[in-house]
Each structure stands twice: as C-alpha cells, then as structure tokens.
Input
Amino acid sequence: MSELLHLACPHCLAVNRLPAERLAQGPKCGVCHRALFDGHPIALNAEGFDKQLQHNALPLLVDFWADWCGPCKMMAPAFAQAARTLEPRMRLAKVDTEAEPELAARYAIRSIPTLILFRGGREVARQAGAMAAGDIVNWALRSQ
Ligand code: ZN
Output
C-alpha cells in the first residue's frame, strides 16, 4: 500500500492523487489528460499559485520575476534548465510580479529575481538575485 500524493495539475488545476512510485513514470492528469510534468516551469496567476501551494505534495520552487528585469531574463533559461533536473522531485513555477502584484506583496518581494521554496504550503527558503542552473538545483535540494 503506497502513499497517495496530492498534485495539482499545472494545466487545469484539478487535484490528482497518485502513488509516489508513479511520479517518475510520466504521470498524466486524470481530468485533462495532459502531462503533470513536462520539464518546464509553469506560469502561475494568483488562483494557480494558491492551488499549487495548497494541493501539492512536492516542494514548490517559485521564480518571482518581471518582464522589465534584465537579470530575470538572464536567469530564465537557467531556471528552465533547473526544472528539467528537479522535476518530478519538485514543481517549478514562475510568478510575473507585474501581473500578480498581490502575490509579490504577500511575500514581500523586494528585489527580483527572487526564488522562494515552499513546502507544505509554507516558505522554507528564499534567495534573491540571478543564479546559474547548477546553483539553483543545489540550493533547492539543500533547502528543501
Ligand atoms: Zn489537468
């Protein structure tokens, strides 16, 4: 009898329940049938963010960024690369602080890019400033 993990679908936000051993087998959403992990960070608005925060058995690593921010754009490929390494151990997501200022305010984001690692709905670590892919992976694994 294996533990069932709760995972919010990145596409339709339906909450899936799946055995832990299926994580590495390319699981699909039971509702929209799209891949629960596709190796890319998912873009979250406030609704999606709360779903991923509250219905997610995995650590959630969020990149708070904005379109006008040069270092954010520089870090984007590194964050995408980190997603390919860290999934499905973690869920990687991005929040556009211009589009979602209430999320930026809720977490008192003072500079971007800022990475926040959540576990069980709570912030466990944060890091401001652009990082290389390997540093993102190492920091996230160390902090989870
Ligand atoms: Zn779905």
Observations:
- Residues 9, 11-12, 14, 29, 31-32, 34 surround zinc ion (CB under 6 Å).
